[in-house]
Specification:
Layout lengths: L3 H8 L3 H8 L8 H13 L6 H8 L4 E6 L12 H16 L3 E6 L7 H6 L4 E5 L3 H10 L4 E4 L10 E4 L1 H14 L5 E5 L7 H15 L7 E4 L5 H12 L7 E4 L2 H13 L9 E6 L12 E4 L2 H18 L6 E4 L2 E3 L10
Parallel strand pairs: 1-2, 1-3, 3-4, 4-5, 5-11, 6-7, 6-8, 8-9, 9-10
Antiparallel strand pairs: 10-12
Helix pairs in contact: 1-2, 1-3, 2-3, 5-12, 8-9, 10-11
Length: 338
């Protein structure tokens, strides 16, 4: 196997000169030596060792992606949202001639020792809690972006959807379709995260139309299809079955639809459903799911592009960008005649 030492010997130059050419430091090498070295690299089809090159240039061309709230037995790709975001991130990272390294953790703090030893050029965190993000930011100085995280008071960069507007649009749409008894279904609504913001938007629209007494919430333990099915069955047998449900995630909405169906309820004839995400799966369901699109592709692209700007400039930045949302009307909502 050809080495830099072999190329240096044949070209009649030092190993340092060969290394400079390989790493693009042409200002340190004569044009004649650049030509000779490049011809030998082509002749022998020489590929430099990635680790050695990384150390020499003080960069790895690796971007870490950290996914929190994943248990030891969990499969993170069972979440269609995770799969879609990762697919977009990988495409953007690959287009920049970088590599993506994924790590799942229980919480973001767990990854601090690993990231301090890995030679990653930057990292994107998906859906971190504010306290965890603050601790990570405090202990690490590499470029980082927090996706879907609310970081008021924390000096860090975040990209997220306009979750408040999404919740508002969902409730506003259902009200316009004649619904007043609208149940919100989702995980815990306390603290600073996407779900509380969606709840606040929903509640604001209800209050705006004098429906504050009808605000109610069905607690969903986990954002999964199975939890949606389980709670769809519960909703079907509530003393007061709502005419409409706004689920804080499409995967929950799809599960609720199935749970209602298994309990003898029809969507949208008996209960209308609106989701949040605009996952591809929503177009495959029967009926097709009406939802709030959070423009996942754009959001992931914006996050990755901001990270690469920081990597390139080697400057600390504080970004707080919100991607717009929109209603996607399909078949899961029935208009009620008054």
């Amino acid at each position: 196997m050809i080495t830099q030492k072999d190329i240096a010997r044949e070209a009649g130059v030092s190993i340092v000169t060969v290394s400079n050419v390989i790493n693009g430091k042409y200002h340190k090498v004569s044009k004649e030596n650049i030509r000779k070295i490049q011809e030998l690299i082509k002749k022998y089809d020489y590929t430099p060792n990635a680790t050695a090159r990384s150390l020499a240039k003080k960069e790895s061309r690796i971007v870490g992606v950290v996914i929190p709230n994943i248990g030891a037995e969990d499969n993170f790709l069972q979440s269609p949202y995770n799969a879609e975001v990762l697919g977009v991130l990988e495409r953007v990272i690959r287009a920049r001639d970088y590599y993506m390294m994924v790590r799942c953790v229980g919480n973001c703090r767990e990854v601090i020792p690993l990231l301090n030893t890995w030679n990653v050029d930057g990292v994107i965190f998906l859906g971190s809690y504010k306290t965890d993000a603050a601790e990570v930011r405090k202990q690490m100085s590499i470029p980082m972006i927090f996706l879907d995280t609310y970081l008021d008071g924390v000096a860090a960069s975040t990209v997220k959807a306009n979750d408040y507007k999404g919740g508002y649009l969902a409730a506003k749409y259902l009200i316009a379709m004649g619904h007043e008894d609208i149940l919100l279904a989702g995980p815990e609504i306390h603290g600073d995260s996407v779900v509380p913001m969606r709840y606040q938007g929903y509640a604001a629209a209800m209050k705006e139309h004098g429906l504050e007494d009808k605000i109610r919430w069905q607690y969903i333990e986990f954002t999964t299809y199975d939890c949606g099915v389980e709670n769809g069955k519960k909703i079907a047998f509530l003393d007061q079955v709502p005419t409409a449900v706004f689920a804080t995630a499409d995967i929950i909405a799809l599960g609720i639809m199935e749970g209602l169906h298994l309990s003898g309820k029809r969507v949208p004839e008996d209960v209308s459903i609106v989701g949040f995400d605009n996952l591809t799966e929503g177009r495959y369901s029967t009926p097709k799911l009406t939802t709030v699109s959070q423009n996942i592709t754009l959001k992931a692209e914006v996050a990755a592009n901001h990270l690469f700007e920081m990597i390139k400039s080697k400057e600390e930045r504080q970004i707080d960008e919100s991607v717009d949302v929109e209603m996607i009307e399909r078949q899961s909502v029935k208009r009620l005649e008054k």
